[in-house]
Amino acid sequence: MAEWRRGVDIKINRTARNLGRLSVRGQTVVGFRVDRSGRLIESKVLRSSGDTELDGAFLAVVRVAGPFPPLPSGYPSPTLATAITMTSGPRKGDFHGMRPLRPFPAGF
Fold first, then answer.
1. Residue 98: CA atoms inside 13 Å, Cβ hemisphere, count?
2. H or E element in which residue 74 lies
């Protein structure tokens, strides 16, 4: 799973670089679910920065970055839900790690 997460981080960071400078600072947690092939099934803001524009920009990064690498062959479920904390700093967005969500959040 560590290799899969690195692959997802790389795709998200490459996509975010194209976002350019963000005038707003804040932190958003975006949750998303992928299928075995890496196709994005669902994504949504799990914890808002308090700024709808920033939340929308970070959500767009995740959506544009897909599809992601296929899940490892040994992964037991047909889908995986995870989240990434995305932080906008004084320059381009900085993205800090992914964490698995188990069980899935209510309504996710």
1. 24
2. none
